[in-house]
Specification:
Strand content: 5-15%
Shape: elongated
Oligomer: single chain
Number of helices: 23
Helix content: 40-55%
Structural class: alpha+beta
Pfam families: Ion_trans, KHA
Radius of gyration: 41 Å
Largest sheet: 4 strands, mixed
InterPro entries: cNMP-bd_dom (IPR000595), cNMP-bd_dom_sf (IPR018490), Ion_trans_dom (IPR005821), K_chnl_volt-dep_EAG/ELK/ERG (IPR003938), KAT/AKT (IPR045319), KHA_dom (IPR021789), RmlC-like_jellyroll (IPR014710)
Distance between the termini: 72 Å
Protein name: Potassium channel KAT3
Subcellular location: Membrane
Strand order of the largest sheet: 8-7-10-9
GO molecular function, one term: voltage-gated potassium channel activity
């Protein structure tokens, strides 16, 4: 090992920016294998001349091609409608764009893909090539890239701008699938607003529909035998000799007016072919309009769903209160609780946290609540590991203002009921909106049981707290003096168990005999039993509920303390003698034989 050992790349810490970039790079259908980090400096064990689909450079290349796709989506219908530009200024630009897509076809033979059965990247060149060639992607990519006009000119030596070549140029619209894939990635990428991304997608779909319909409608007018008997010829008789700008303006105007169902009537279908296309376009507009309105409504209403739910809940509470004639004060409390819940739901976000792995939830709790928990009186002196385990089990709640007594930050409430296993003696209310973190009784017991040393410290802190309570508070807690007496007895037994040394004299020498007494001193961890000062066959006297001590001897000592004399035997209801305390359960009845 060298002096400066390097940690494996898998375990190196990454910044939030790097993590976001990694997530964005795999936001499509490509997912890396478990245990890999995706960034620009690390790749899987790829073969030579194999490109990872989530490689940053390849992603930029794909984004650049989307810009070219936008040009193709505009140019293909435009060249169909206006013959002048198909062999004019747009031809060189079309050839350059086709060249870039030809390069992409070649690159695709070197791009690995995700196997749907093993979810591993396939990096074998033959498998990559066979998958691309045997699917529909390859022939369509080739057909949409071939410059048919240039090929015809090279083969025949003649320049031809017939309609067949202009229709073949519409194959470039196959490239629009890249735009759809881009929007899918952007919708999953948290660095971009979903609302804005969705709106851009709807706008692009609408603009493309208007552009395509207008160009095709103008092409119908140029194909008719009598130019004057067309939708534009009736308004502009010599439209074929006029500028492209004029024809395109008329076409887009008609498409927008028809899409929005305004229908001024100044431009209308004249011949049967135009009427047939208009009918098709109007039916298509019904679906497009429904799609756009539905998506926009969903985006707008999505943020108001929670408000609607709160209003419905308020109305239900008001109806319930009126139907059952509840007092106004009680109804106000119900409404205040509901309003508080609706206001704090964004602060708690439990539905989000619950879906995260336990390790992440624990880290969140450690960050939010650890500084507060470690300052509480009951956890002074306990181990950091115990506090960390406790923090992972707590949950946060909000309480509306209502004051009875004053508690500050890191103060506790409800620990008396939990630790003594009695009903909560106090009602707590808040002076202002307060956040309270809580842990359930069962979770607390499960935490303390395997940590007896921390439990002893916690118990000692709790007893000191009880002894420091004011007299008026002590009077409110039922049986507190007796409970303190029981705790003192258990604590005394605990001290003996921690130093269980008996001296025995052998041949005039003294030796120490250590006894393994086991057990747990924590009263909330022990079993509760009811002891009676009589045998099972006698009339049952009023029993006493106590915590089961760690050993039989401690139980005898506790019985002597309660009834004034030491029993000779302890039995259960069927006269069976108790020899193992581990066999007892909560609320078992024990009978003392004197």
């Amino acid at each position: 090992m060298s002096g400066s050992s390097r940690r494996p790349r898998l375990f190196r810490r990454h910044s939030s920016r790097e993590i976001m970039n990694n997530l964005a790079s795999v936001s499509s259908s490509f997912l890396p294998a478990f245990g890999t980090i995706v960034d620009e400096t690390y790749h899987l064990h790829l073969k030579k001349f194999v490109i990872a689909p989530y490689d940053r450079r390849y992603r930029w290349w794909q984004t650049f091609l989307v810009v070219l796709v936008i040009y193709s989506a505009w140019a293909s219908p435009f060249e169909l409608a206006f013959k002048k530009v198909s062999m004019g200024p747009l031809l060189p630009l079309d050839l350059i764009v086709d060249a870039f897509f030809a390069i992409d076809i070649i690159l695709t033979f070197f791009v690995s893909y995700l196997d749907k059965t093993t979810y591993l990247l396939v990096v074998d060149h033959k498998k990559i090539a066979m998958r691309y060639v045997t699917k529909m992607l390859f022939p369509m990519d080739v057909a949409s890239t071939l410059p048919f006009q240039l090929i015809h000119r090279v083969v025949t030596g003649k320049v031809h701008s017939g309609e067949a070549f202009r229709f073949l140029s519409l194959l470039r619209l196959w490239r629009l699938r890249r735009v759809s894939q881009l929007f899918k990635r952007l919708e999953k990428d948290t660095r971009f607003s979903y609302f804005i991304t969705r709106c851009c997608k709807l706008i692009c779909a609408t603009l493309f529909s208007v552009h395509s319909a207008g160009c095709f409608y103008f092409w119908l007018a140029t194909r008719h035998k009598n130019p004057e008997n067309t939708w534009i010829g009736s308004q502009v008789p010599d439209f074929e000799q006029r500028t492209i700008k004029l024809g395109y303006t008329y076409s887009i105007y008609w498409a927008v007016v028809t899409l929005t169902t305004v229908g001024y009537g100044d431009l209308h279908a004249v011949n049967p072919s135009e009427k047939a296309f208009t009918l098709f376009y109007m039916l298509f507009n019904i679906g497009l309009t429904a799609y756009v309105i539905g998506n926009m409504t969903n985006l707008i209403v999505h943020n108001a769903i929670r408000t609607f739910a709160v209003r419905d809940s308020i109305n239900e509470i008001l109806r319930y209160g009126s139907k059952n004639r509840l007092p106004e004060g009680l109804k106000d409390q119900m409404l205040a609780h509901l309003q508080l819940k609706s206001k704090t739901v964004e602060l708690q976000q439990e539905e989000v946290i619950e879906n995260l792995p336990k390790a992440i939830r624990t880290s969140i709790s450690q960050h939010l609540f650890y500084p507060t928990i470690e300052k509480t009186y009951i956890l002074r002196g306990v181990s950091q590991d115990f506090i960390a385990q406790m923090v992972s089990e707590i949950k946060a709640e909000y309480f509306p203002p209502k004051l009875l007594s004053k508690l500050g930050s890191s103060d506790m409430a409800g620990e008396i009921a939990v630790l003594l296993n009695i009903p909560q003696p106090f009602t707590l209310r808040t002076k202002k909106l307060s956040q309270v973190i809580r842990i359930s009784h069962d979770h607390f017991k499960q935490l303390v049981k395997p940590n007896s040393q921390d439990g002893n410290i916690l118990l000692s802190n709790f007893i000191q707290y009880l002894k420091s309570l004011k007299q008026e508070i002590v009077q409110e807690i039922p049986c507190l003096p007796e409970l303190l007496s029981d705790l003192a007895t258990i604590t005394e037994a605990t001290d003996l168990n921690e130093h269980p040394q008996n001296q025995e004299s052998v041949d005039g020498n003294t030796r120490v005999i250590e006894e393994d007494v086991g057990g747990n001193c924590c009263p909330w961890c022990n079993v509760r039993v009811i002891i009676h000062g009589n045998s099972p066959n006698q009339n049952t006297t009023k029993g006493k509920l106590v915590y089961l001590p760690p050993t039989i001897e401690d139980l005898y000592r506790l019985a002597e303390n309660k009834f004034g004399k030491r029993p000779n035997m302890i039995v259960i209801g069927d006269d069976s003698e108790v020899e193992e305390l581990n066999a007892l359960r909560d609320n078992d009845h024990l009978y003392l034989i004197f």
